[in-house]
Specification:
- By secondary structure, the chain is of the alpha+beta class.
- The chain is built from three helices and seven strands, in the order E-E-E-E-H-E-H-E-E-H.
- The termini are far apart.
Length: 181
């Protein structure tokens, strides 16, 4: 039986046009309920910037895996969010944290329920949340936060601006593809 909780799997390095320095990959299985395996990815970029994402193991394709909803309850969802924070805290340095709340397949909406859940969770469980500067976009469901003393603020702001453009372009491309169907 697989070990429960957050387990480090491996580091992965960029392929083709990927821009991160490396990606930490974790597996998470909750201590209660269904033994659903969640993969948590922590992508590390220069200037101490990280993007955290997660998806259910063996669900979807590389293109859709972040968009597929699992049939889990609020307690399980909260446990996954906590595991994501644990992975972030394992970095042992000050990093800007970025996340993007994927839309469901074939559905694009501002301020989606995932984004709202992430915001609420972070405001309650992120250590010293009030000491972090935040910027985000309800329209494309992205958020970045970093400590007020973060040494790479300007670089993080520039990175986030470019990240938002990529997310928006991706959403617009999905809209165009669904219009063709």
């Amino acid at each position: 039986m697989a070990k429960k909780g957050l387990v480090f799997i491996q580091n992965e390095y960029p392929k083709n046009d990927e821009e991160f320095l490396y990606r930490q990959k974790y597996r998470f299985i909750p201590y209660f309920g269904k033994p659903i395996r969640t993969i948590i990815e922590v992508e590390i970029y220069k200037n101490n910037i990280c993007i955290i994402s997660f998806y259910e193991h063996n669900k979807g394709t590389d293109k859709t895996k972040y968009k597929i909803r699992s049939n889990i309850g609020a307690g399980h969802t909260k446990a996954i969010f906590k595991a994501c924070l644990d992975a972030y805290y394992r970095l042992n340095e000050d990093y800007a944290l970025i996340f993007s709340a994927a839309n469901d397949i074939d559905k694009v909406e501002e301020d989606n329920s995932r984004y709202s859940a992430y915001l609420l969770f972070l405001s309650v469980y992120f250590t010293n949340y009030e000491d972090y500067d935040r910027q985000g976009s309800i329209a494309i469901n992205t958020l970045m936060l970093y400590h007020r003393t973060f040494q790479y603020k300007d670089e993080a702001d520039l990175f986030y601006s470019e990240f938002e453009k990529k997310v928006e372009a991706s959403i617009n491309m999905e809209d165009d593809e669904s219009d063709k169907v």
